[in-house]
User: What shape does this take?
Amino acid sequence: MKWIRDLQLKRETEALIMSAQEQALNTNSIKKHIYKTSESDLCRLCSKNVENVTHIVSGCEKLAQKEYKKRHDKVCLYIHWALCKKHGFPTSPNWYEHVPEQVLENDDTKLLWDFAIQVDRVLNAGEEDENANRPDIVILNKKSRSCLLIDVAIPNDHNIKEKEEKKIKKYTDLKLEVSKIWNCSSKVIPIIVGALGSVTKNLEKHLKSIEVDCKISVIQKSALLGTANILRKFLSV
Assistant: This one.
């Protein structure tokens, strides 16, 4: 657990995250199966799945569109801010104050935020339900004729490797289409961090591909703060 302490979280946040990692929070599953109460072990929000830590931090449909998205967008914000700084686009001094524009462009670079790329055919998203033409961030380097399709996910920690592979597969068709449309080489960059802080062994390599000073520790801390906020709200319901 030393790496959590190295992130310099507040003591109460650190304690909450560590309790979540140890499955030691007062969920309905714990109440029923450990404390032997007569309560249902189903989620108090969606009433569809067993309410355990994994479900709360990454699996509840009632939290997906607002709370999970807010956590996801914070990580994207940090990466977009770093790209803006590197490529000469105006931004705030602090990444967490950054307000991203959907399209930024100068003589050397085009930078897209949550922008649907129009292609001539239906793209195969594999098992993903989302559109396969809308990565979180796209950056086109006009000089080198290279394009990066960057997509972020914050899944259950046990699924980070699987999610990384799915992201690469999801955007394979778009990568090929972008190469044709913009006459460039292109690459999919999955940025995956677990809801409780785990990262894939490839994350450092992926961040180096973006060629900006994005720190894994900042990405982890942002994800963990988002998760802590979700847990506090959920357990107070």
